[in-house]
Each structure stands twice: as C-alpha cells, then as structure tokens.
C-alpha cells in the first residue's frame, strides 16, 4: 500500500473528500517511482467510484481489479471481483507487485495477512474525524521499519514491512468467518 493519512489516522473526511491533501499535490514523495514498479492494482469500490470522477484515469497501463459486490460496467478494462483477498489474488496470479488501495481493501488484506509492505505519508494536519485508515478488526501485525523520510512541506513518510508473528492464530484454531492462513509469498502486495 502507498497511502496518505492525517496525523490522527484519517484517509478522508466523513463525506469521503480528501481536500486536506491538496497542498501536497504536485510534490514528488516517491509515488511516481512506486507506481512504475507495480504490475497491477486492487482497489475498493469507493476508491474506484472516486477515481472515475478524476479528469484522467490514474491507472492507465496497469491491470486493475475492483473488489465489489455491486454490479458495474468496466470503463478502462478493469475487472470486478467479489470475494476474499485470496480469491482476488487468484485473479492476479502471475503478477509480481500488486498495489492495494482503498481503506476497506487495505484493512482486509492486512487482516488476511496478505499485505507485505506499507508506505504511509503522514500529512501535518489533525482532522479530528473522518474515515480511518485502520479501524478495528485488522488484528495485531508486527511491522519492521524499512525507512522514513521527512519533507520540507511537513509531510513525513514511513515504510514498513510486515513480519511473521508466531503469536498469530494457527489455522486449525480458526473459526468460520475468521481469517485464513497466509497465502504463499509469490506475489508482493503493497
């Protein structure tokens, strides 16, 4: 994942807008190089509906899978899939570096232990409310700091890698509706 949050952990305001990011638009914070490194994207329906309103399709040249249960018609060659993160990744079998975007999708991939690294840009603002990046239900996930960088405009970016946790619930103890065991690590999900 590669995402921006307010200092207090919000990725959007209550109404889904993210105008607090506007002062940072046009500044290079590593996104261009990151986007060039990915093979495909998995986004949520809310993110998809938002980017459809942009003047240009921001994912040109990339395979896009939208996680949704609501019917939709592809406008840019995207694929719509209803299912678990593992079922979605099956659609992307053979892709090496998959970008996961959208708060709900990120939380699902993290909860299912199929998110390998997280890049979070912290915007210097406290919103006091809105849509959280991490809500509840993701579980505990130990992270290893890969790097951090601060920028003159006040943005701070941190990059973490998920690490195995021997305390994670064993697959045999899982109940119906709980998270499955980790998928084989053949595809990198960020």
Task: Describe the model.
The chain has 190 residues and is of the alpha/beta class. The chain has a single domain (2-189), classed as Dihydrofolate Reductase, subunit A, CATH 3.40.430. 16% of the residues lie in helices and 27% in strands. The chain is built from four helices and eleven strands. The strands form three sheets. A five-stranded parallel β-sheet has the order 5-4-3-6-11. It is globular. Mean pLDDT is 86; it is low at 169-186.
Summarize the structure.
The chain has four helices and eleven strands; from the N terminus they run E-E-H-E-H-E-E-H-E-H-E-E-E-E-E. It has 190 residues and is α/β, with parallel strands linked by helices.
Keywords:
Dihydrofolate Reductase, subunit A, 190 residues, alpha/beta, 4 helices
Please give the share of residues in helix.
Answer: 10-25%
What's the shape? globular
| Rg, alpha carbons | 17 Å
User: What would CATH call the class?
Assistant: Alpha Beta
Note the topology.
Layout: E1 2-6, E2 10-12, H1 31-37, E3 40-44, H2 45-52, E4 63-67, E5 79-81, H3 85-91, E6 97-101, H4 103-111, E7 117-123, E8 131-132, E9 143-150, E10 156-162, E11 188-189
Parallel strand pairs: 1-7, 3-4, 3-6, 4-5, 6-11
Antiparallel strand pairs: 2-8, 7-10, 9-10
